[in-house]
Every structure is written in structure tokens, then in C-alpha cells.
Amino acid sequence: MAIELGLSCRNLIDADVFSKSDPMVVMYTQGLGSKEWREFGRTETIWNNLNPDFVKKFIIDYFFEERQAMRFDVYDVDSKSPDLSKHDFLGQVFCSLGEVVIHGTCNNQRINKITFPHRGTSSRNTGRIVIMAEELDSSKDIIRMKFNGRKLDKKDLFGKSDPFMVFCRCNENNSFTVCHKTEVKKNTLNPEWQLIEIPVRTLCNGDHERTIKVTIDFTASNGNPNQPSSLHYIHPHQPNQYALAIQAVGEIVQDYDSDKLFPTFGFGARLPPDGRVSHEFALNFNPANPNCFGIQGVMEAYQSSIRSVQLYGPTNFSPIINQVSRIAAGDTSGSQYYILLMITDGVISDMEATKEAIVNAARLPMSIIIVGVGPAEFDAMEELDGDTVRLSYRGIEAERDIVQFVPFRDYVAQGKSQILSQARLSKDVLAEIPDQLVGYMKSRNIQPGPPPPTYTQQPGPSAP
After folding, report:
1. Cα–Cα distances in Å, from 422 out to 13, 239, 249, 426, 428?
2. Above 50 in pLDDT, residue 464?
């Protein structure tokens, strides 16, 4: 008889330094005479996931009268190379097909012999493989389906969603096994997926009464930060658009900050270790002291955090604006003025709450700069930038215009100087700040105070 094997992994080790492992499982069978292990097949790679459920299934003929030995090796994929020696070995499980058929799952088999590159071996708990087995129906029928979505939620980190559909079939124990995933449709709330052609035995194993669960998932529009296609990709030699925007604005404003300490926050991510979703977390993961020293410190915190968190939606601006507003409300004497720089790649999910937050912030000593990166449309940002029509919320008009928005793409062109592009960007986004600051001080009748103490660089290590 033909047996279908489905694989999952649970609680894998983080083999990557700054992100979760990217697991793939390789299945081997053993020859009866030679005892040689032969590769039977490989699952797909599931990026940045320690608990993957693989769509790829293995179909193998089962013979009761033979002992059919199997081996499953788990790897953390580090490149596109098919050479397994180029990837990190996480561990393996040995079992027989008979064991899996009898018990249905080898979910107590522990992955062993964990190897960390250049660190030797580890004896700590290294996770497990779950192997689901089911006899395949002989049906050769094919089912064809076509799906589309309309007005989906904006679940992405920034911008519109990147949705895909997941089909799961119900098992005899009422658990579900993933049997198909559609392609991802980028940056849309109205996706139309390609025609699905799938064998009936894959979808329901010939049982037309079997329950099928269909869900829609949403990937982060910024993409996997470990992949070059991501807007957050950390290139070893070239800064991404987020980094360029931070540098362009930050290197100007830091000259006007006496202590060079910048509270820096992220939003729209699942945080380690428990996956809690946050829309206002300290980028250095120290909520008691979110300050970074200098723009270089901000850059280091950004690059470290983007490798540690999982990007997640929806895109809520108001928590960050309200957080900075609380800081600004603590000092209205005129001794401090706050500039909030927000970098986004698309649509805001909490538009009304963001309007309310900005209207309230307009009474405080602060300004907001929004830089849009990537190719998305930024119509909503223009509404927040009250140059033409003063922003209002429920009939209450903002006391001042404190928002300046610019799309980063207007300042970056092929072949143009990066330094000049950054200079033009910083000039335009900061052009309104002096008038906004002076306007606030005059409205509160705050007179100029004495100049701050001269900044002296923090001492470094003594010269030899």
C-alpha cells in the first residue's frame, strides 16, 4: 500500500545568531542489503520558524514483511546551494516505517546530535519531529479551484497585506495537517490567486466528507529581513532605505541634542522570547531605558532588533505617537523640544486614532517627521501633513501643523550620489522644524534660555 508521510518540527534550536532557524528536513531510506542510506526527498524550506509544518509530503510503498528503516535529518538552510554541507545540521531521527504506521506519529522521537558551527555539540533539549502517516486512497481525480479575496484586513507591518491561503485537512484525531498553500499576492487587499489544481487524495485522501480548513495568512510587506528582497535587508556593504533615512535625518538633529541620547522605539513585531505582539517596544529591548547613544547607537539597535523580532501587523501609528507625547508632556517649560522620526512603507491601520494622537500632540513641544520608503502609495500620509488643510479629529482642529511627510523614492535615483540624496532628504524634512519650534515657544510665551553646556565626546579607551 502507499503511505503518505507529513512532517512537522517543534521547538527547534536557533542556529542563526540574529534570527530564527530556516528549517528543512531531508528524508533517507536504507537499502536492505547494503544498509546504505539513500536520499528519498526534501521538504521545502520554511523561513524563520522553530515550529514548521511542511507542506511537502513523502509517498512511500509500505511492506509489512520488511523492516523499512528511515532517517530524517534537519538542517538550517543558509543559502540556495543544494549541497547539504553548506547548511547547519540541527539533528536527526531514526525510525522504521512500521513504527510510524502502527503509532501514526513518532512525536516522542528527539532530535539528537545538535551541532553548532564552530561551537561543538550541545546536549540540551533540541526539539522533536512529528511524523504523520496515512494510507493513500487510490483515487487519481484532480480538483480545480479558484479563489479571490475582497477588502481584506490591513494586517501587515506597514502598507497593504501580502495574503496567501492555507488548506488543511482534518485527521482522525481531529488535528489538522497542512496540505496546500497558495502563492503570496504582494501588497493587496483584493487578491486573485492562480487556479489551484490539486489531487483529491492530497486534499482529502478521497474522502469527500472530510473537513477542510481554509485560512488566510498575511506576510509582512517588508519581507524576511534575511532575504535581499526585504526593505529591511541588512546588506554588508550598502545601507537599506530605513538606514539611509535614519542617517540622513539623525545626523542633522543630533547636533542640537546636548546629551546625544535618543529614545528609540519599534512597532509592529512579535518580540522574543514569547512572541508577544507590540506596537511600541524599545529598540534596544530595555523598556526602562530606551535611549541609544548617538545615531550610531540607533543604527546598531535597529540592525540588532530587526534580526531578533518577527515583523507583524497591523500598522498602528498612534501607540508610538502617544508614547512620545507622554515624554514631551513631562517638560513643557521650553527646555526640551522633541522630534519624532517615523519610517513607514505604506498604509496606516489606525488612521482615526493616529489623527487624534497628532491633534493632541500639536499642543506639546514636539514635531513629527514621516518618511515613506518603498513603492507603495502614501495618500493617507498627505492628509496627516497639514500643509494645505490643517488636520482635525471629530471637529477639533490641530493647534499647529507638526507633521512633515516625504516619500524617500523622490530623493533616490539610479546613478545619483547617495550623499546628495540624503542631504536633499534631510533638508526637506527638517525645513519646517525651526518654524514649528519657534511657533510653539511663542504660543506659550516662552523666552529663550541660556545655551546648553558644550558637548564633550565620551572618553574612549586610552591610547597605548
Report:
1. 40, 12, 8, 6, 10
2. no
Mean pLDDT (the chain, rounded): 80
pLDDT of residue 333: 85
Q: What is the pLDDT of residues 268-323, one digit of tens each?
A: 788 887 778 888 899 999 999 999 999 999 999 998 888 788 777 677 889 999 99
Of 325, 395, 406, nearest to 362 by C-alpha is 325
pTM: 0.54
**pLDDT tens sequence across 264-273:** 998 878 888 7
- Does the pLDDT at position 106 exceed 60? no
In the chain, what is the greatest distance between 2 CA atoms, to the nearest angstrom? 94
**pLDDT confidence of 259, banded at 50, 70, 90?**
confident
* Between 246 and 116, residue with greater pLDDT: 246
Q: Which three cell numbers stand for residue 269?
A: 513585531
- Structural domains in the chain plus CATH codes: 1-136 (2.60.40.150), 137-219 (2.60.40.150), 241-443 (3.40.50)
In this prediction, what percent of the chain has a pLDDT beyond 70? Answer: 83
More confidently predicted of 232 and 97: 97
For residues 40 and 72, give the distance between their C-alpha atoms in angstroms, rounded to a whole number.
10
